[in-house]
Amino acid sequence: MQALLAAVRDAAKLCRLVQANYLSAETKTAGDHSEPVTIADYGSQAIICRALQQYYPDDAVVAEESGAQFLQFVATDGRAQIRALLTQVLRQQVTETELVDWLDFGAGRSAARTWVIDPIDGTKGFLAQRHYAIACGQLLNGQVSGGIVAAPGYNNGGGALFYTREGAAFKASLAGGDGTRVTVSSRSEPEDIIAAQSFERAHASKSRMARARELAGLGHVRLLELDSMEKYALVACGDADLYMRLPREKSRYAHKIWDHAAGVALVQAAGGVATDLDGSALDFSQGEALPNPGMIVSNGARHERVVEAVGQVMAE
Predict the structure, then answer these.
(1) Do 143 and 244 belong together in one domain?
(2) Staple partner for 169: which of 25, 67, 155, 269, CB 3.0–4.6 Å?
C-alpha cells in the first residue's frame, strides 16, 4: 500500500494548494465555490487513480468523478489549472489525455478487488477550511478489506493519514513517515463517551440521533460535530466512541459507497464495529449505493444498546 499512501498524501497536498490559492476572500464573499471544489475533486482523484493504474492495473475502480464529466463540465481555464497543479504536485508534465485516462481508470470493470475513491469527502468543510477527507477504500469480492483516509483538518489543521495494514489500523503524519498503530477506545461509561456527528444538518437527523442517545443512556455525552469521513477515523483512533447517521424523516437519500468504505475499514481494523441501524452488516456489494438507510459506528462497548435505542426511535 506504500504507493497508495504516497498518492493520497499527494492528493491532500493538492487540496491544500487549492485552498491556499483558489479560496480567496473575493470567492468566499461572492459565494461562487464551484471552481475550487472542481479543481480539487478532479486533481485528487487523478492522483490516486494514476497510482492504481501503475500498481494495480487489473483492478476495478468506483469513483465519484469521471473523464466524461471532466470534458463536459470543466471549462478550458479550469482544465489548465488542474493540469498545472498536477504537474506541480507530481513533478512531471501532465497532458489532458493522461488526466482523462487516470480519471477513468478501472471504471465499469469487474474484478475481485475494487478500489472505492472519494477525492473530497466533506465539500462544505473543505470550502470553510474545517474538516474534510480524501479517501480510498478497498473491497474484496464486495467486502470491505482495507482503506486509507487523509484528514487534513485533524488536530486543528495539523492533519493525519489513517490507513489499514495486515488487519490493523495506523495513524501517520501527512508529511510522510511510518505510522503508529491505533485502536478504538475502551470507554464504556456514559459520562466518558464521546460521540461524533455531521456538522451539516442536511446530512442526518440530529433530533433522532439525540433521542437515540438519550434512550441508550447517553444523553449527556460530549459531542463533536465535524464534516466528512474523518468521523470514522476519530472512532478508529480512540478520539471518539460513537458515530451515528440516522436518516431524516421521509428521506430517500442513498448513501454512496465511496463515502463510507474506507472509514468502515479503518474502524473494523481498529477493533470497532460498523453496522446498519438494525445491527446487521453494511452491504457494499450492490454497486455505487448502499442499500442501508444509515449506520451506527462505535468502539463496540455499548453498540447493542445503541442499536436497540435506534430501533425504538425509528419506530417512533
Answers:
(1) no
(2) 269
